[in-house]
Amino acid sequence: MQRRIRLLLTALLALPLLLGLGAAPAAAADTVIEAENAALSGGARVETEHAGYSGTGYVGGLTDGNKGSAAAAFAVTATQAGAHDVELRYANGTGVGMTLSLYVNGAKATQLALPATGGWASWGAVTAAVNLNAGANQVAVRFDASDSGNVNLDRLAVTVGDDPGGPAAPRAVRAPTCRTPSTRPRTRPRTPPSSGPTGPTGPCPPRPRAAGPCSSTPPESTSSSR
Ligand SMILES: [Ca+2]
Questions:
Q1: 59 lies in a domain?
Q2: How far is the CA of 61 from the centre of ligand 1 (A)?
Q3: Hey, which of 7, 25, 28, 199 has its CA 20 to 30 A from 225?
Q4: Burial of 32 (0-12, 13-18, 19+ CB in 10 A)
Q5: What residues make up the domain containing 121?
Q6: Looking at residue 30, what is its pLDDT?
Q7: Distance 32 CA to ligand 1 centre (A)
Q8: Which residues, 6 or more positions from 203, have their beta carbon under 8 angstroms from its beta carbon?
Q9: What CATH number should be reported for the domain holding residue 100?
Q10: What's the 222 CA to ligand 1 centre distance in angstroms?
Q11: Distance from the CA of 11 to the center of ligand 1, in angstroms?
Q12: Residue 209 lies in a domain
C-alpha cells in the first residue's frame, strides 16, 4: 500500500515536468529585433559575409572611417514602463575589447563593453539594464567618438527586467502575529490553559471560533464558522 502511495506521489510530482510546467524557463526576450532591420545611418550597413548571424544578416560598417556617425536605431515597443534588459548580440574579431554607446530615446544610457568574441563568425552578447517607457521607444547603438567601435551587430533582444530605478516593489505583507506574552517575570508558575494559543511566536494556531486570527475583539456569540 505504501509503495502504491509513493508511486502515486512520484507520478504527481513528475506531472508538471512532463507537461513542461516545471522549472521556470529562461526568460524569453519580449522583443527581438534583427540589426539588419534597424534604421541604419552614418555608414552602418547590412552585411552577410561572416556566418553565424541570425535573421538575414548583420550590421557592419562600424569602422574607424564611420567613427562618430555610424548607428543602428531599433524601434522597441515595451509593454510596461520601467527597467528592461537589452541584450546586444555582436561579433568582435579584432582580438581586443571594443565599445559602443547605447542610447534610449535619444539619451545615452551606457557605454557597452564588447569583449573579443574570438573571430568574426563567433558571436557573443552583452546585456545592459535600461529604463523604457510604456509603448514606443527608440534603442540605438551608436559608434560615438568616444567609442572604439569596429564590431558587427547581429540583433537586439529586450526583456522586462528587475526594476532598480523604478518604484519600489510592494513589500510582502507580514503575517499577523499572535498575542505577545508579557515580558514581566512571573512570580509563580502558571497552570497551563486548557486551550488557546500558547506559543510566543509563529503562525497563529487554529482556533475554533469564527473570528479572524489574532482578533482582539471578543468572538461573536455564534460559534459556528461561516
Ligand atoms: Ca541578424
A1: yes
A2: 14
A3: 199
A4: middle
A5: 31-160
A6: 85
A7: 10
A8: 175
A9: 2.60.120.260
A10: 70
A11: 43
A12: no
CA of 53 to the centre of ligand 1 (A): 5
Cell (9 digits) for 74: 531599433
Task: Map grid coordinates 567618438 to a residue.
Answer: 145
| 23 Cα–ligand 1 center, Å | 30
| Torsions phi, psi for 8 (to 5 deg) | -65, -45
Q: How many domains in the chain? A: 1
Spatial CB neighbours of 160, under 8 Å, sequence gap ≥ 6: 30, 78, 79, 80, 82, 83, 84, 85
- Each residue's pLDDT, cut to its tens digit, for the chain (226 residues) gives 555 545 444 444 444 444 444 444 445 678 999 999 999 999 999 999 999 999 999 999 999 999 999 999 999 999 999 999 999 999 999 999 999 999 999 999 999 999 999 999 999 999 999 999 999 999 999 999 999 999 999 999 999 986 544 444 444 444 434 344 444 555 454 544 444 444 444 444 454 444 444 444 444 443 444 4
User: Does 148 reside within a domain?
Assistant: yes
221 Cα to the center of ligand 1, angstroms: 72
CA of 82 to the centre of ligand 1 (A): 26
218 is a domain residue: no
